[in-house]
Amino acid sequence: MKIDTNSLVSITEANQNFSKVARLVDEKGAAVILKNNAPRYLVLEFGQLEKAAAAPDEDVMDVSKKILAQHKKAFEELAK
């Protein structure tokens, strides 16, 4: 995930001025709230939640095939 540095907000600033966070989300699509100078929270528009959370079935199948191939011996041992 690429993070726009202009969408970073400290947790103190977010606490004191949440409307700024909401404006950032409206303008940029997301805002990242920092805690101790590290990304801690991500604020998204509600409509983007489904896009961010759901992976297409093809991607899920590709990942599962890769995991099965990488750990084939372990899965064969567990199947015994």
Topology:
Layout: E1 8-10, H1 11-16, H2 18-28, E2 30-35, E3 38-44, H3 46-53, H4 57-70, H5 72-79
Q: Indicate the mean pLDDT.
A: 82
Order of strands in the sheet with the most strands?
Answer: 1-2-3
**Helix coverage percent of residues?**
55-70%
| The level-1 CATH class of the largest domain | Alpha Beta
Core attributes:
single chain; 80 residues; alpha+beta; YefM-like fold; 2 domains; 59% helix
Describe it:
There is one protein chain. With 80 residues, the protein is an alpha+beta fold. The protein has two domains: 1-44, YefM-like fold (3-Layer(aba) Sandwich), CATH 3.40.1620; 54-80. The chain has five helices and three strands; from the N terminus they run E-H-H-E-E-H-H-H. It has a three-stranded mixed sheet with strand order 1-2-3. Strand 2 (30-35) and strand 3 form a beta hairpin. The protein is elongated and about 60 Å long. It starts with 7 loop residues before the first strand and ends with a helix. 8% of the residues are buried. The mean pLDDT is 82.
Concise synopsis of the structure shown:
This protein is α+β, with helices and mostly antiparallel strands and 80 residues long. Helix content is 59%, strand content 20%.
